[in-house]
Structures are given as structure tokens and as C-alpha cells.
Design brief:
about 220 residues, 7 strands
Length: about 220
């Protein structure tokens, strides 16, 4: 058994016993695939982790930057109370259309709003609405803008809020200080911002599994 195959087997085992897809989640993946969306959604066990983090937070308001087909959105939306709210920002209108259908089929359309357009344009508009602070922010969009997304997450949250930044290992390339690749440069800038920001306390974890060699960062907003 190859090492990577072993990772896949372990992920499949954990997911089957701890985070199995139900019909709505499975359908979201099928419809995303049928629409030609890239296979970059979170794994099932990672979606369950997001749900648990939102529940541990007692989250009532969630912000997601990067919707794709709505798979992670469904996991997060299911953590909300009946009067909760999730705002998800998606750049691609085709992705957003698929996501809206998937979210509605999962019965979450009353809780979830998908906004279409560049996130760095949507975020100031969202801020202008003076929404309640977001209890959890999940960032899983274009990596070049990661530091900007982290900064906006701080602005739109409050003391005790949680920020989750996905895909921070980049297959190990995050350690390459000389890289000019936009995803590496953006991710390194976000990690260093979390480490130096006076209102953030964070860490990062490496992961292996069906999504390959990667990881995520988590940060808590301080007073």
C-alpha cells in the first residue's frame, strides 16, 4: 500500500464512521461534478470539523469566503440555530448557481445567502450593512488574497470569534520564502499576519488525506 493510498483509506474510514454524507451532501457533490466544478471542496471529515467548530462556538452568524458548490456551506449551515444566518461569497456565477440549488435542496435557503462577485468587492458592501459580528469565518477562496480576507474577517467579527483559513500548506510549498507563486505568497502573508496581529491568537495544523498534503490555520479574535 502506498503512503498516499493509506491516507485515502484512513480518511474513508473516519468519514464512513464519523461524517458520512447523507443524500443532500452526496447530491451536492454529484451536481457540482456534473456542472464541471473543480474537485476542491473540503472532504467529508473536514466538513464535519467545520460543523463542530461552529457548534462549539455557538455560532449564530457565519461568514464563508468561497462557496464553490455549497458542500462546506451545507455543513456549516447545519450548525446554525433556526434564526441564524450564513453569508457565503462566491466569485464565479456558475459556481454560485450550483451552490444555491444545493443549499435549497438541503433546506437551508432561509438561513444561507450566497452573494456573487469578487469577495474584496462584496466584503466592503457587507460591512456597510453593519451586520452583527460573525462568530465564525471560513476562508477558502483564492489564496493570493488570503491576507486581505483575514483582515476583513477581523473587522467583521468580535472578541471570541473564530477564523478558519483552509489550504495553508500548499503541498509543503508554504516554507519557500523565495517563491513568487501567488498562492504561496498570499498564504505566507496570511500566516505571518495571524502571527503578528495584536488581535489574533492562532496556530496551523498539517493534514494528509483524500485532499493530499495540506492543512489549515485557526485563529481566535482577541479583545
Amino acid at each position: 500500500m502506498s503512503e498516499s493510498h493509506g491516507w485515502d483509506e484512513v480518511d474513508a474510514y473516519f468519514t464512513a464512521h464519523l461524517a458520512p454524507d447523507d443524500e443532500d451532501l452526496a447530491a451536492a457533490l454529484r451536481d457540482s461534478d456534473a456542472a464541471g466544478l473543480p474537485h476542491i471542496n473540503v472532504a467529508g471529515n473536514q466538513g464535519k470539523l467545520l460543523q463542530l467548530l461552529a457548534q462549539i462556538q455557538g455560532a449564530r452568524h457565519i461568514l464563508e469566503i468561497g462557496t464553490l458548490g455549497g458542500y462546506s456551506t451545507i455543513w456549516l449551515g447545519r450548525a446554525l440555530p433556526a434564526d441564524g444566518r450564513l453569508v457565503s461569497l462566491e466569485y464565479d456565477p456558475v459556481h454560485a448557481e450550483v451552490a444555491v440549488r444545493n443549499i435549497a435542496r438541503a433546506g437551508l435557503d432561509k438561513l444561507v445567502e450566497v452573494r456573487v462577485g469578487p469577495a474584496l468587492e462584496s466584503l466592503p458592501k457587507l460591512a456597510d450593512e453593519n451586520p452583527p459580528p460573525f462568530d465564525l469565518v471560513f476562508i477558502d477562496a483564492d489564496k493570493a488574497n488570503n491576507p486581505h480576507y483575514v483582515e476583513w474577517a477581523v473587522k467583521l467579527s468580535s472578541t471570541g470569534s473564530l477564523i478558519v483559513l483552509d489550504n495553508v500548506v500548499r503541498g509543503g510549498r508554504v516554507t519557500d520564502a523565495g517563491s513568487t507563486a501567488s498562492d504561496v505568497v498570499g498564504t505566507r502573508a496570511a500566516i505571518e499576519l495571524i502571527g503578528s496581529h495584536p488581535r489574533l491568537s492562532g496556530t496551523a495544523i498539517q493534514t494528509v488525506g483524500t485532499k493530499g498534503y495540506d492543512g489549515f490555520a485557526v485563529a481566535r479574535v482577541l479583545a
